[in-house]
């Protein structure tokens, strides 16, 4: 399992995302564990905050650009220390924001603030340069040589986040990764449908957002009948939405971030109890 | 000049709640949109060149829009050389006036129509009826909603929200009014047979036909209509007077361009290689011909369209009204078409309604009816950047100060704090301190301000007692 590319340890700069940092730090801790077990040197640029997608999607582009410039500055500095290092994003959606939206956001915002075209282009190039080195966690993991783990028989159903699927084009990779770590995938009906989260949409338009979440939970119900014992995703935003809805409906069905499942499998045979315990979100001091 | 679109004047929360409480509609719309979306995927999978042809169609549409005025001039010249008359209408009101003048000049008493979204945009039926002229829709879906006194809920399938039982009841009632035999059963064949029999009488009695148009071919001055029912053949040949109302953006330069685009609406809309009938109108009835109208008027409608030219939104004019974006939209699947309050629902409606009217009507659409899941962008065969436009429209609303001041302030403060590591950590400490007023059973169950909506129906774990930042500082900080 301890694979080393070209004889040297790769350096990974962790982009933990604000949601995981604040609401599910265990997910990032698990990701660190997974990366280190595979021989990587993990660094965490501690000045990072949030990618600004909430503001961007709501139309507040000036505000989003403030956060985006900070993000680019933080990770650009971190990457400059090592020309081989990559940024590992613990969210397909936040990765898509950085890779797909930053260059034009920063270009236009620079012009809007009265900067010269040259200055605007510099921001665009800087965003593109950093964006090229961002990789979503499961996509990175899929490229790592991992010994196939024996099947644990735990049925997992996977929610494919919209931005990861449609803006990054990552579709089956996370399920393949789960399978190679011993989990059996239980399909989800209408898997390409949104969970209804949509950032602040879930707050401002909660009736529609909830109706869409309930539709997803209905599909989840069918996966459960087919043997799914837990729900996972590579996007914590979607999971927070669905687990928040399950919790309000007093449904204890386990929901865990994908890196947590991988870390669990790395440590030995996985049991349903271990997954349930992990989902219950027990905090340590 | 800004366009005019009819709207449902009920406020969005009323429209939304009406939709979310209509379980029959929700169920019907859920089943049918899935069926249509899957049919599209299946059709593309079984057709290896599908994407090649789609790409060519995109190029044809884009190119046609770039040379819009030239093609419209050629089209006008051609139509008029074949005995037709072309009218340019800047707004909906202009179009209505032109059509009413034509109808009144010929003392028209009854009109038959093909399905046309543009005539919905004009509210033509109401204008004709107010002038004492009877109107009959002859597309099956349109006929059903006309009987129900409703508006289309879907661009391509206007009666998508109605189930068989509801349609049967409408036909039964119609049979009573017209003293005719009701449908034999709720069976699809029986229902269709009933509509066919009833509509036949109307076709023969009408003295004016009104069509929309899927494409306009400039080089020959041809209006192209595609249907799956053949009703356009009857509407364009039986009455002595014919009016075709078409949006200017439907133009293509020539027949080779038409061939490239013609299969796209059916392919992406219903997963069919080509629609069952193609009706071509190139002029009035000639001296040695036995079918066709004596007089043909073509109304080319602008209504806000050409103001999108040479803007970042120009690709919107490539829309072929296939409805693929509606079928995959998670919001549309929940609330259906009527909740949008616009003639054009779904993602394309969210984009077109404010653009055509310069945000005069339904400004809530871009914000309230999209989760930004990008499914529409993926589904659109014409590569219209629908999600990108929706984000852009949200930004325009913000720049025009159309959002509540409290919401704007929330975003400002949020960005101000989170643009520095110090502010981020400070806001996190505040949240951790403040959240305990709202925690029940270990979960946050309510919150003030912008976040409040979340907690109407969902819980959230509290901010962790040790965030990842703090964990890293504590366990790894020294190594950095």
UniProtKB/TrEMBL annotation, chain B:
SUPFAM superfamilies (alphabetical): alpha-helical ferredoxin, NagB/RpiA/CoA transferase-like
Lineage: superkingdom: Bacteria
GO biological process, one term: lactate metabolic process
GO terms of molecular function: 4 iron, 4 sulfur cluster binding; metal ion binding
The 4Fe-4S ferredoxin-type domain, residue ranges: 310-331, 361-389
Keywords in alphabetical order: 4Fe-4S, Electron transport, Iron, Iron-sulfur, Metal-binding, Repeat, Transport
One Pfam family per UniProt: Fer4_8
Key word 4Fe-4S present: yes
Gene3D superfamilies registered for this protein in UniProt: Alpha-helical ferredoxin (1.10.1060.10), NagB/RpiA/CoA transferase-like (3.40.50.10420)
Keyword Nucleotide-binding: no
PANTHER family: LACTATE UTILIZATION PROTEIN B (PTHR47153:SF2)
Protein name per Swiss-Prot or TrEMBL: Lactate utilization protein
